[in-house]
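INFO batch 0412 | record 1 of 1 | parsing
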Amino acid sequence: MSGMGAGASTRPPKYICVSGAGLVSTSPLARVLAGQEGWYWSDERCAETSDLFSGLHGTKTVVPKGGRLGSFPIRIELGETDQIVLPDIHLGHEEGRETLSIVVRSRAILTRHRNEIASLDRLFEGRARINYSKAKTTALVMAKILRIPLGPLELHLDALENQTRGIETRVLVNKEPPSTDELAIIRLELLNLRAGLRGVQRVIEALLDPSSGAYSELDEKEGEKDRYLQHLHDQIGRSLAAAQGIREAVETLESIAAAADSGESNLFVLRLTFLTAVALPGVLIAGILGMNVDFPGSGTEKGFYWAIGLMVISSSALFAYLLRQSKRSRQPLGKFWKDLTQG
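INFO prediction complete | emitting tokens
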């Protein structure tokens, strides 16, 4: 992802989240999040100087620039009257890794009645009038923001589940062995997906940990604050369980693919055995005929009759072998012969 500030790490995190001063600023919440691997938090006013968050998690402030790949705005509903506007959402890739930048402006609240932009302080004031503490309001906004990276991850999870189900259908209905290359791609994408889900999960767990000090305001509404993040944490847990189910299905399909490859190898050996069984008597018969070329009426027909006898014996033995294999495979002899000779 191009256009990142000079202070960015050479290996970008899985997700980069940049927040406005009105939401976290220099609160304990910002410092807890800054300590989470793969998350960078900063104030939009720190675009010129990054002293505010210097030293947090050993990195400098990252401020997203415009013109990135997949930039689009988004609005988050906050009750019936307000929306929080995220004007800069950037999805991109850098060094083969997906990155996500979220910018929350200091003046980011859009009121529906007056259609005006207000600061985030207004959000806290308005929520306080309906018995929402600042900790609870922050948790609500945090939960809504954290849902943004979960959206693409869950869509990708559904796509992988449908793709795996399609492969299972081909195997069960069409008797078509699965492709090992296709399964390898699913396994790799599933690995990246699980890493992304766990990255968001670690941040939520840090916020839920009372010892982290993420919230400086703790009151009797603490349980309600946790409810937003706990629901999101449970949602990620269900997604991880679904990912584990896909992984187990892929492992089963890989076993079927390995068995199919083994069956093809066994069929190759069977064909080789068949050719050997036909070739050896033929060589023996040709040797006898070559050493003793006698024909009926010449007075010495032993070589000819020996050759005829060996041919009958070898043909009978081959027919008996094919009949036995046909019974074992529960296939008609004609179909077994076709499979043996043509695959």
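INFO post-check: The first helix runs from residue 28 to 34.
INFO record closed
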